[in-house]
């Protein structure tokens, strides 16, 4: 063989190169789903750990105070003057998340919320007190703004205020319907009145849950990609969640249930058969284009519309959910609506849940077993 022929045989032919590229491409295609699955598994484990820490923080809160916080609360400056209604003039609305700050290594931030009372009107905190906290964000649900006070987790707030089976008039709270309730009663707090401030506070505790449905059968926390922030934002910082515009609602920091899940009479463009179920509101507007409107009218789905009140996650086919006793499960989006509602009520003997198909009240229905979910 000549030297010229030997030199020509040192390289790959075009066909050989294409074969190698095809083999590499096939291997990558085979490995990619496994890599993606491993990444999602890691993100889900982080999410589970976040929920576990929040659940433990709420247990510690309950152990210290013998009660759980509301989904929204009033933090008051007890050194300030009282108004004609006997309420402290300086106060702030704070979500259940804020109330857990001392138990999730955020004591310094909680001190700013509970002890920082500037002599200004309104009594507002600066943007530096609305920090992004890693443990409040599911890695599968990354925030659009990494500096925003984003939130991926919501608390069991019971029956939705827009459930059409409720009686007309001002919606009332029933402690048997959930775990977290409206405890923001100070009318001096900025924001629209929700017309419930004069009602007696409904407050739950672990003892109440344990004595009734049981902590292992009552949901405490879930995911929701529409939760937006862990508190109402300060004026001008995040206009879509302005403290001045928004009346308190269960769906802001909580998740809810409905007696009726197939009634599409409230608004013309919202299909309740989709939105009143787990992962049902995925087709609604993302936070970046939400507007601060309370009407809920056609074309105005907002950051605070009640139809964002069901659990929702970026995980395929369901959400992570924590029970009051601390165990966490993956709640499938195909769960029976009756089972879902029953897992949310804290006292089936007194809850407002009624199976609309059979017209049977919760107290007469068989209670869920582990195999049901």
TrEMBL record:
The keyword Transmembrane helix applies. Residues 36-338 form the DUF1559 domain. It comes from the Bacteria. Keywords: Membrane, Transmembrane, Transmembrane helix. Coiled coil: none annotated. Pfam families: N_methyl (PF07963), SBP_bac_10 (PF07596). The chain crosses the membrane at residues 12-35. InterPro entries: DUF1559, N_methyl_site, Pilin-like, Pre_pil_HX9DG_C. PANTHER family: GENERAL SECRETION PATHWAY PROTEIN G, TYPE II SECRETION SYSTEM PROTEIN H. This is Type II secretion system protein G.
């Amino acid at each position: 063989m000549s030297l010229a022929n030997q030199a020509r045989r040192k390289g790959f032919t075009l066909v050989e190169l294409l074969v190698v590229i095809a083999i590499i491409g096939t291997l990558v295609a085979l490995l990619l789903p496994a890599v993606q699955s491993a990444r999602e598994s890691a993100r889900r484990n982080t999410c589970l750990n976040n929920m576990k820490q929040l659940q433990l923080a709420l247990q510690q809160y309950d152990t210290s105070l013998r009660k759980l916080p509301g989904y929204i609360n009033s933090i008051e400056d007890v050194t300030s003057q009282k108004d004609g209604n006997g309420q402290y003039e300086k106060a702030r609305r704070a979500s259940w998340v804020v109330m857990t700050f001392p138990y999730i290594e955020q004591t310094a931030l909680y001190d700013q919320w509970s002890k920082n009372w500037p002599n200004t009107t309104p009594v507002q905190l600066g943007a530096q007190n609305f920090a992004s906290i890693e443990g409040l964000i599911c890695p599968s649900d990354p925030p659009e703004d990494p500096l925003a006070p984003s939130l991926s987790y919501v608390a069991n707030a019971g029956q939705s205020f827009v459930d059409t089976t409720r009686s007309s008039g001002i919606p009332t709270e029933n402690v048997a319907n959930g775990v977290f309730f409206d405890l923001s009663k100070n009318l001096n707090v900025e924001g629209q009145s929700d017309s419930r401030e004069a009602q007696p506070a409904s407050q739950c505790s672990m003892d109440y849950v344990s004595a009734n449905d049981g902590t292992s059968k009552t949901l405490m926390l879930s995911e929701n990609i529409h939760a937006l922030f862990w508190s109402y934002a300060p004026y001008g910082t995040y206009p879509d969640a302005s403290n001045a515009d928004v009346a308190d609602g269960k769906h802001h920091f909580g998740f809810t249930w409905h007696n009726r899940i197939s009634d599409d009479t409230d608004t013309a463009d919202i299909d309740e058969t989709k939105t009143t179920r787990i992962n049902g509101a995925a087709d609604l507007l993302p936070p970046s284009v939400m507007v601060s409107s309370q009407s809920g009218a056609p074309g105005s789905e907002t950051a605070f519309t009640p139809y964002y009140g069901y659990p929702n996650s970026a995980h395929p086919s369901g959400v992570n959910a924590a029970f009051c006793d601390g165990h966490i499960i993956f709640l499938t989006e195909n769960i029976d609506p009756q089972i879902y509602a029953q897992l949310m009520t804290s006292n089936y003997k007194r809850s407002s849940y009624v199976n609309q198909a059979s017209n049977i009240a919760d107290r007469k229905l068989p209670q869920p077993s582990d195999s049901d979910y």
